[in-house]
Task: inverse folding
């Protein structure tokens, strides 16, 4: 049965389910509705044993430019969260993206344009990340807002590159992402869709249950390295980082001047990412 969504589109291509984030005017920023519909679409595909692989991609110019910032919070009209409420909220991001990570069949992130902040939370919870070589990937909000509410970085690129990116907020190209292991492959943007489909068809040549078993044992290996507990720790530290003086000052700037001006002021001293 086909479900109608407002913020994602789904299509079946043989044994492949392709899910497209569909808020192109917002660079597919992750509203609550988009997150809920995406997870629902992943679950629906997972329940269909004819589906052997899922592709997640973005409509328009970007894969995903991050979490959608609620303008009510920017205005200061909503009461501030208590620390415990903030902890519960930040931990919930890891719990949500675990549905993608734990999906029984393989999930490929097809990344082009911006893959920023929350976009990396989503992409790094997929099994394989294939990127356009000119994509722009990173977590700039560590400069002013807190820490990533989920943390898959160290499992993909190790401690040094995780620190290099999360202690500067710098972004890197898709080519660099593939070089350091953040992505499995980088290809020219014009070839990305065809390349990802070819990879998905190659995976789909293997039977459903064999894919499930082989994915599960690899994921269990990552669990032995503490993956689930790491997401709880990431959420707690993001909430704590929201109390840093710089984060409080940035929140005020965001309310007073709006997102574009606040980001421009924050990033001015960094110049272009190195």
Result:
């Amino acid at each position: 049965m086909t479900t109608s969504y407002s913020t994602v589109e789904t299509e079946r291509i043989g044994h492949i389910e392709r899910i497209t984030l569909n808020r192109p005017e917002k660079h597919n920023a992750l509203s609550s509705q988009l997150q809920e519909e995406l997870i629902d679409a992943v679950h629906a595909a997972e329940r269909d044993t004819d589906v052997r692989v899922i592709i997640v991609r973005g409509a328009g110019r970007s894969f995903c430019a991050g979490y959608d910032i609620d303008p009510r919070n920017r205005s200061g009209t909503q009461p501030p969260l208590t620390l415990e409420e903030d902890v519960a909220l930040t931990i919930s991001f890891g719990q949500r993206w675990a549905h993608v990570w734990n999906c029984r069949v393989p999930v490929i992130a097809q990344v082009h344009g911006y893959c920023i902040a929350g976009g990396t939370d989503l992409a790094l919870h997929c099994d394989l990340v294939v990127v356009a070589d000119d994509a722009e990937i990173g977590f700039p909000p560590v400069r002013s807002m807190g820490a990533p509410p989920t943390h898959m970085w160290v499992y993909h690129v190790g401690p040094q590159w995780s620190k290099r990116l999360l202690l500067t907020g710098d972004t890197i190209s898709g080519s660099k992402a593939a070089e350091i292991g953040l992505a499995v492959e980088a290809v020219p943007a014009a070839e990305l869709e065809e390349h990802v489909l070819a990879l998905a068809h190659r995976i789909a040549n293997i039977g459903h249950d064999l894919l499930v078993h082989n994915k599960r044992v690899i994921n269990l290996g990552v669990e032995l390295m503490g993956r689930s507990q790491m997401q709880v720790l990431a959420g707690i530290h993001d909430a704590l980082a929201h109390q840093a003086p710089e984060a409080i000052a940035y929140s005020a700037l965001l309310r007073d001047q709006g997102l574009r001006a606040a980001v421009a002021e924050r990033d001015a001293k960094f110049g272009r990412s190195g």
User: Anything to note?
Assistant: The chain has one domain: 8-270. The CA atoms of residues 55 and 108 lie 5 Å apart. Residues 71-75 have pLDDT under 50 and may be disordered.
